[in-house]
Amino acid sequence: MFEKIKAYFIDSYTELTTKVTWPTWPDLRASASVVLIAALIIALLIGLLDGASNVLFSKIIYKIAG
């Protein structure tokens, strides 16, 4: 059983060091920039929708509650 586990880790290490194509530093920075910009846009949209719904529902509740 331990031989299978050992073989698994050896094969995993070999695959990660010889077969996987890792991104270059400029590619990694570009991808991180895209993710950061997308996250900021989504956060702004959610914030705007939250604020709009808060104003809308608070006005409706105040009218109903009197």
Structure notes:
The chain has helices at 2-19, 25-65. It is mainly alpha-helical. It has a domain at 24-66. The longest helix is centred in the last third of the chain and has 41 residues, at 25-65. The radius of gyration is 26 Å and the shape is elongated.
Mean pLDDT: 93
Record field, number of beta strands: 0
Beta-strand percentage range: under 5%
Rg on CA atoms, Å: 26 Å
The SS-based structural class is mainly alpha
Task: Detail the topology: elements first, then pairings.
Blueprint (H helix, E strand, L loop, with lengths): L1 H18 L5 H41 L1
Briefly say what this structure is.
The chain has 66 residues and is an all-alpha fold. 89% of the residues lie in helices and 0% in strands. It has two helices and no strands.
Defining traits:
66 residues; mainly alpha; 2 helices
